[in-house]
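Exercise 7b. Backbone tokens:
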């Protein structure tokens, strides 16, 4: 059984695929095959990152500190966009400000 490439090796392979696709020198069939391989790599890398986040969260929890659930991809603003925080996050009902706004 072949050893799975390391995270870094997979990232390097994905970057190479992206570069090849951006150059535009591949045939349509080759481009589709490279794109498919790139998506498989990206999904594998995402799973590895999620596992690493879960491990860190577990270790932090064992240390007695509160941590966020790493499997929850939604932010506090509920946007569902991982890594994106609205400019309006933290404003509104929760911060005790008066949210009565006259629109007309």
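Sequence design result:
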């Amino acid at each position: 059984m072949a050893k799975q490439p390391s995270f870094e090796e997979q990232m390097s392979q994905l970057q190479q695929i992206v570069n090849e696709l951006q150059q535009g020198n591949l045939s349509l069939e080759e481009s589709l095959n490279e794109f498919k391989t790139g998506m498989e790599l990206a999904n594998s890398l995402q799973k590895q990152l999620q596992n690493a986040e879960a491990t860190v969260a577990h270790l932090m929890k064992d240390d007695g500190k509160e941590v966020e659930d790493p499997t929850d991809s939604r932010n506090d603003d509920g946007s569902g966009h991982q890594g994106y925080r609205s400019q309006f996050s933290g404003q509104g009902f929760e911060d005790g400000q008066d949210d009565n706004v006259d629109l007309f």
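Instructor comment: The domain at 1-64 is CATH 1.10.287 (Helix Hairpins). The first helix runs from residue 7 to 23.
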